[in-house]
Amino acid sequence: RLDQQIDTRMKNADYLNSRLKEFDFIEIMEPDPRVTRNSYHLFIFKYKSEKCKGLSREKFLKALNAEGIPCSTGYVPLYKQTMLVSDEAVRAIGRIPYAEMKLENVEKASHEEGVWMGQRLLLGDRKDMDDIIEAIAKIDENVDELL
Fold it and tell me: Which of 13, 59, 70, 130 is most buried, judging by how many CB atoms fall within 10 Å of its CB?
């Protein structure tokens, strides 16, 4: 089933990317042309709050989830994981100043812009992909109420 599922996820990701371009407050993650196959463990796009009347990403995610589209902010940045900053980690790998790191693009992705959807969403049919687009359009149409 893996080959079929990967094909389905790739097809649906391509379709979603083409439709997400309709919203000026969403920036898609352009696929690298060197990648010939992507299993889409995650489908990620950038939400630009400033282009959606300042609606916070948290409110955008809450509204999208309320419309039945499960999504999240994603993982905590790797360099903030307890396993890398704990006393045990320091003893095991030495003193690497992970706790003091602040990588601007990582912080922006994890705290401001990133919207993550699990791969199971991409296993649906075209109607399911349209439901995602319709939910985003509904948020866009009702942004004043959400503010």
Answer: 13
